[in-house]
Input
Amino acid sequence: MGQRSDRQLDHCTRSIASADNQMAQKILLTGGAGYIGSHTYVALIEAGFEVVILDNFSNSNPSVLIRLGQITRQNQVICYEGSVLDKALLAQIFTEHDISAVIHFAALKAVGESVEQPLAYFSTNITGLLCLFETIKTAGIKHLVFSSSATVYGEPEEVPISETAPLQFTNPYGFTKVASEQILTQAAAADPWAFGVLRYFNPAGAHPSGLIGEDPFDIPNNLMPYIAKVASGALPHLNVFGNDYDTRDGTGERDYIHVCDLAQGHVLSLQKLLSTHEGHVVNLGTGQAYSVLEMNAAYGEAVGRDLPYVIAPRRPGDVPTCLADVRKAKKVLGFETQFGLADMCQSSWNWIETQAPS
Ligand code: UFG
Output
């Protein structure tokens, strides 16, 4: 009972704070139950926004909603279950809520799967964006933050990669991100829209509470969730895809960014759009690259033992180094990261351990 009263009190305090600040704006998060979406939900609530989630749980678990309520001390997390392709549902959300802006995460994101099922990627990622556009135009929404990716740089000629680097794609997933960015550019030229396009580098880590984190349904494609499964014993060893690259130790180097830093980047982008109505395209990374072996060793330190790996052939399509030029994000958004590699590994391991059956 005591715990329940505390929660009611906290909820009450939050309501009073919202009433004092009569400007609490409501944001629609498509894909808000996913990995980056859920962390952004928390950052938005902490920044004083109200949030409505739309998610079809195709790559997330509905239990995330209970956990979001625990972290943000809210009795109710508002979520509509469904797809961005469902225009009737989108219209219903805008009828039932006074939405000020949208952050659009809902998309498919596995490179290999996109090669096998390109039409699914065109449908969810491109048609989904167009469905959302139709609805927000009718609703008079002018601000949208778009979840893009460093994948739009394809095989970059120079690192660090600046936002002015040419856009390329090497697979259908990358194509959908390049095409979506171009749709946003053309749309903003015709209507009074302002878009924040955020090009993520390599998201890693989890919320410090251990309640939310990356939860891939299948064997992970990405490095950190794969290492996490090796650490938990679910997979025998890491396959290091190539050790003959022109990098410090021969393995691929990437710019890993803590998911909580990434979430904060969304808040800054949204605040910039709402306060200035100026669109922007920025990289979200740290400006620091780590190799596969460095990542595996750092994760091992968080776990407290060396983690097994074997050297495997290169993965087709991989580049040696991917590293963000982060100057524009700092200049335009005031974005600076707070967390380093040890935080990413420790928070990820904390999340994995919290999930483990006791
Ligand atoms: N790697 C391994 N073994 C694995 C998985 C990955 O050695 O089991 C290596 C890769 O070869 C690469 C590095 O770890 O050198 C990072 O690979 P990820 O798959 O984690 O990330 P990528 O940089 O290849 O791609 C990710 C997303 C893309 C996105 C890109 C943006 O998966 O969707 O970051 O930079 F476009």
Residues 118-139 form the longest helix (22 residues).
